[in-house]
Amino acid sequence: MGSDDDDDDDDDDDDDDDDDDDDDDDDDDDKLREYEHPHLVQTHSARLDECVAPGLGWREEEEEEEEEEEGYSSLDQRLQTAAASFCRLLSAARSSAPQFSLAWRSPWTHSTRREVLFCPENTTTSSTMTRRSCAIYATGIVCAHLLIVGIALVVAQVFQTMIHSRLKQELTLTEKSRVFESWKNPPPPVYMEYYFFNVTNPEEFLAGGKASVKQIGPYTYREYRPRENVTFLENGTKVYALNPKTFVFVPEKSAGDPTVDIVRTVNIPFVVVMDQLNSYSFFLRTFVSMYMNSLGVELFMTRTVHEVLWGFKDPILTKVHSMKPDVDEYFGLMWKKNGTHEGEFVFHTGEQNYLDYGKIDTWDGMREMPWWSSNQSNMINGTDGAVFHPLINRNELLYIFAADLCRSIHLAYVKDVEVKGIQAYRFAPPSDVLMSPKDNPTNEGFCVPAGDCLGTGVLKVSVCRQGAPIVVSFPHFYQADPAYINAVEGLNPNKEEHETYLDLQPTTGVPIRACKRAQLNIILKRVTGFPKTKHLNETIFPIMFVNETATIDDDSANQMRSLLLIVTLVSNFPLLIVGMGIILLLVLVVLFCRNRQKKNDVKRIDFTEAFHSFTTAKDETAYTQVSDKPDEPSTTPAAQPARNGSYIAMSPVEAQKC
């Protein structure tokens, strides 16, 4: 019995030993399994929480305060060294590869390779990849829609048609329109610069020589031209207005004082009387000539600039006035033109047709002038030069009625210009406007009487100047027959100083800058009965020229630029859509390429050095064999030896797991 009891005790002891061994094996298995999962390498003496970068998904746990068995002290020390190296490699991998996987094979169990995929900032790789793919698809869809819609709008020109329709509605002469107030009271200042030709050799000219002149000036006046008595007619399709002009001298823009400066020029009243008597008898002309000599009246007179401009009491006209009271005894180039208007105008408002905006319907009750010899020449065409219809193109001709020239003239496109940051088209009268009927038959109607025509570059306006032999031209006979230029010494025509032009903003038709330049001349010729003219050569003699200028003011220019910016943005909105589509297309390409690069990006780190201590012999490492059979030979193929270490790698397949 005792023996049996002893045997039983031995068996119990063996069982206890086996249980202890099993417990030890279980502890070792638990410990080894814990080390086989790198995201749990946070226990025992290897503290990894201090070196783990945020976002790797590692949890910080309290170090268990358990006493380690003596058999594991060597293992723990080696694990500390390995864990430190492991941590550094993980940090390096995290900084260079935003996503990576950890492949681990246990050095003790030679178990199947384990993998853990790490994603930064506690975000799973699968959700990140899904969002990236969705962003790419969404960008592609938006890009395609923008390109399709933009190209369709460009082809259809929807926005351009819309803005043009809006401009046609806004640019009308109605009380509620934006342009009506500026039409009534033009904000840009208008300046009149007067230049005179001072005759330097009157005696030589009377003796048959060539006249010599010297230009003096300018004498500048500010012109105010508000529209008065504005009345709408025919249901708002037409508007009646007067346009009185007032002139104020501007010393700072003038070359001298007009009340002091003296000018020697042709005595126009003398020439007018002489020309009127040309059809009378020789004895009457001789008698009048003798009477003029008794008054001391000569072919040339010397007066102040102010007198020549604004008038003086002439002795000849005073005598005529005594016989014919309707003849004014005062004479001046601008006599009775300060504070007066040029006639009654009726304009089209553009309500029915935007192309009629600002066009003259009647002038002094006339739709046609009565002076010229053809219906075409008598037509009142175009505007008064203050406004033009919107949406002007380069190929059209613009017409202006000039009351002081007694005719309509047309302007043709010259070039694109810029005024105060505003793009404009420059229009100017072409050379055929004042061309000789021989070269331009359409001008034959301006010959009065029919067939009595002058050469190129000049226009005789006697018919609307009470029969006075007045001729108009461009300054210094610009674009005129060289014979007129060579007949007088001191003339130097050039385009920059003597061309008439108009700079128009093509979208709105608003004049941005204008220069109207015209020269007043008089015909001098021999008249029998007047001995003082018997030696002079017939000449179109220059008296003075005026440069009427206007440039948009700064406030109006700022408003114009803002308006044009809006018009440009709205008109080109389809192009902006296409541009956005192209930009998004480029973004789509970049996102796609980056996504492909991330899928194919591979990051490998060799952990062999980190866990080199695990390659030591069994007797130097405390562990329990997991296999049921001790010293079981390895089943690992020769070509695939048991790995003592790990590597980190990311592949497209693994990335999709995120």
TrEMBL record:
Residues 622-638 have a biased composition (Polar residues). Belongs to the CD36 family. Residues 30-39 have a biased composition (Basic and acidic residues). GO terms for biological process: protein targeting to lysosome; receptor-mediated endocytosis. It is found in: Membrane. GO terms for molecular function: scavenger receptor activity. PANTHER family: LYSOSOME MEMBRANE PROTEIN 2 (PTHR11923:SF56), SCAVENGER RECEPTOR CLASS B TYPE-1 SR-B1 (PTHR11923). GO terms for cellular component: lysosome; membrane. Its main location: membrane. It comes from Mugilogobius chulae. Keywords: Glycoprotein, Membrane, Transmembrane, Transmembrane helix. Residues 1-29 have a biased composition (Acidic residues). Residues 1-47, 622-658 are annotated as: Disordered. InterPro entries: CD36_fam, LimpII. Pfam families: CD36 (PF01130). This is Scavenger receptor class B member 2. The chain crosses the membrane at residues 135-159, 563-593.
